[in-house]
């Protein structure tokens, strides 16, 4: 199999001619803290490559599931629908999941309440330092 790579600049991201000349796009997606909104964004945001490359046949099926998702009041059932959509994407080879990097950072034990946001950055807004007992 012959593969030609054509990197493009981030500034060219919105250039729709990229869509016409590509058979596959390798990209990453980092979900925001609210996973449900971020999940919807992948399919509903017209600038997202998932949306731009979606075959109309599959788009219709996914939109039916997303409509059910939007009407569902129970959070656990919404997450079940998210997993169902993800399984569908896997089964139909619409999206090929490569890897997920899990970054771990260690901080001194005296730093308390250090939290990590969805982008992997430390949020020190509620940080406090435990006083030394000495």
From TrEMBL:
Q: What is this protein called?
A: Solute-binding protein family 5 domain-containing protein
């Amino acid at each position: 199999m012959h593969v030609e790579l054509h990197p493009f600049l981030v500034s060219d991201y919105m250039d729709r001619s990229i869509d016409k000349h590509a058979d596959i796009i390798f990209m990453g997606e980092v979900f925001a803290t609210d996973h449900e909104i971020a999940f919807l964004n992948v399919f509903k945001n017209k600038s997202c490559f998932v949306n731009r490359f979606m075959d109309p046949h599959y788009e219709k099926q996914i939109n039916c599931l997303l409509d059910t998702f939007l009407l569902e009041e129970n959070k656990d059932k919404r997450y079940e629908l998210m997993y169902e959509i993800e399984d569908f994407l896997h089964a139909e080879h619409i999206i090929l999941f490569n890897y997920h990097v899990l970054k771990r950072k260690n901080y001194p034990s005296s730093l308390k309440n250090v939290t990590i946001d969805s982008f992997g950055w430390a949020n020190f807004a509620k940080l406090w330092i435990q006083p030394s007992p000495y």
